[in-house]
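Protocol step 6 of 9: fold each sequence in the batch and record its structure tokens directly after the sequence line. For illustration, a two-sequence batch is reproduced in full.

Sequence one:
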Amino acid sequence: MRILSFIIWPLVLYLIGLFSTESPNTTTESPHGKDFKISCSTCHSSKGWSLDKEIYAFDHSKTKMPLLGSHKDLNCKLCHSSLVFSEAKAKTECVSCHTDIHNQSVGKYCDKCHTPDSWIVSNVTGIHQQSRFPLLGVHTMTECQQCHKSETLHRYDVLGIECFDCHRDKYLATSSPNHNTANFSTDCSQCHYIYSYEWASSGFNHDFFPLTLGHANVACSKCHPNNNFSNISTECVSCHLTDYNSTTHPVHSGGCFSTNCTVCHTTNPGWTPTSFDHQNYFPISSGNHSGFACNACHTNPANCTFSCIDCHEHSQSETNNQHNGVGGYSYLSTACYNCHPNGSGGGKHFRK
């Protein structure tokens, strides 16, 4: 019997181990992959294998794809369809999950314009300022599709960054003046003000010859006859020679007055008041000579000579006697001026 018991018990123990459903060597494979090292209790509880949001403690901000904005409320399977999280390591770019409706016409980086909170772009102008074509002036109110013309409303193919790229039709259609015939520059900004709301002359940039005061409302054709917008002189007399020759008070022609009108005049309408400063030559704004008409001293209107002796009632002999011993004295108006440049009498006013 003892021998029989030694044979039966090992057999019984073998059979028990053979039919047992709980083998100590059996393990369940994780659906997250064999390399997954995070503890189950980070996402799951004893309630079951579904994600338990009450105890969920995985810090996604430590990954290459922090969950911000609307990404915080997404179901994990939307990005991790296989639940093997290591397979999604390279999917950190927007286009990995989102269809590029712009067809790469604005690049593949969605975050240049969009935020994780919404697809709505709230700062188009500010974003555009960082491009090759900052939106200035009237361009800030222009609809995107006016410049980005394509087969869909979501493509933003670039036509170009030069004015002519968008405004070629306006350039060719302009007849007053004819831009094409006059060989105007295709760089519209040379003549037109980007902050103007129209192409008319009120927004025209004429800074190379400022149109101020009397020049402000002059028709282009007055200075540019026959649509000639090249080789036009900026000298006053090129337009105002008739005014120069017809002036009689005082007479300008004859070599007395410069043909450079700016010596005496500004662009004030009517040529007055003049900017000529007579004080630099002879004081007439104060003292004994103030209030005199020009022709009182400039008796010969054909030239710039002046007369002292015609106004001052001194006989030549009397004047000669008063200047006995004065070197360089002569009975001439120019001699009077040389010694009396301020118009005052007496030796103390003599020029030294």
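Sequence two, same batch, same settings:
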Amino acid sequence: MSRLSRLSISRKTFLTSLLSLLVFAAYSAPLLAQDSDISVTDSTSAELEGAPAAPTNVLAVDHKYDIGEAVDVSWDLSFDDTAGMRNVAGYIIYRSVAGSAEFDSIGAVFSLTSSFADIGLTRGETYQYSVSSYTLSGQVSEPIVSAEVTTEREWFDWDEVWVFILLVLIGGSVMYFIYHARKGKQMFLRKIAGLQAVEEAIGRATEMGRPILFIPGIHDMDDVQTIAGMTILAKVAKQVAEYESRIFVPTRASLAMTAARETVREAYMTAGRVDAYRADDIYYVTDEQFGYVAAVNGIMTRDKPATCFYLGAFFAESLILAETGNSIGAIQIAGTAQPAQLPFFVAACDYTLIGEELFAASAYLSGEAKQLGSLKGQDVGKVIAMAAVLIGAVLATLGSEEGMNIETFRGAFHGIWSVFGGGQ
């Protein structure tokens, strides 16, 4: 190709590129001008944004059922805080003491919130509140002022009146049964097989000439289950003393050992056999859980007690103890308030006191008037609770049916009353 031809092609390429640049510049200028106009418009609208609409119906009331140190403030949301607007970022709450024209800011809440609790006030003082809405750009509406409110103390919480009624019913029933128990009236108590078998189990050990093992749980005296076990130990030790048998009480806590020694010694004194009391048969083993279990298992396999009592708080060691006692052929009576351990005792022991039966055992064994009366009063409370649950379940079920309302229940009541009561 000649030099003249190459020069002609280069000129054509240059002219084509220049024409393309001119076209691009012509189309880009309006677009750039349009973007510039938009940015100016946006900034100007943000600067010219006005204050939001104020909330309405600001209400301040004394907080119910307190000692007079709180006020509840509520209001209707601003028009700008509704769905689709959301220009309001939140609300500012102000407070003024009666006699003062100045309102001080005491707090703020987010949008879509229409209440505020002002606490820590002075009882008997009069206050006034105002609420303003605000936006993220710092615009605040005019404050809407509430009426004055005075804090007062209420002595009774009438929302809890049913709790008071239940307390009166249960407390009254306990006092009623204690009174009649002291008068010598026979109290019917549901029979508990494990407690009825106590005397038989002690008698069997006496006949076989073998000792009795009593474990009052593995907790210290700060556990109510250990205290319940000690109460039963007193009754068991008294019968052991009368039958001239022997009882071993290994403990996991030193304080429990001291309490057990005093309990057993007093039981022997009551039976008139203080000379047969052996303090060395009630001893401390170790605080380590499974070290204690290993030591007790050794006692079982060596001394082979004819009767084993496990009454108190037990955990992972429950099945180990019960299986060892079962392997030596002992009569076993267990009881605990630990739900997870009850299945093991039920499977491996002859008798098991389930849950509350452990705490009721002392009343069954002693027959003391106060304990019997308290037990019967608690039974009344259980009946009331079960009745309330049953009635509530029935009403909730009926109320869930379509067309069921208070008029339906009223009509049903009048119908039943007309049949059994003889009239409307």
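Proceed to step 7 once all outputs are recorded. Observation for sequence two: Residues 56-150 form a domain with the Immunoglobulin-like fold (CATH 2.60.40.10).
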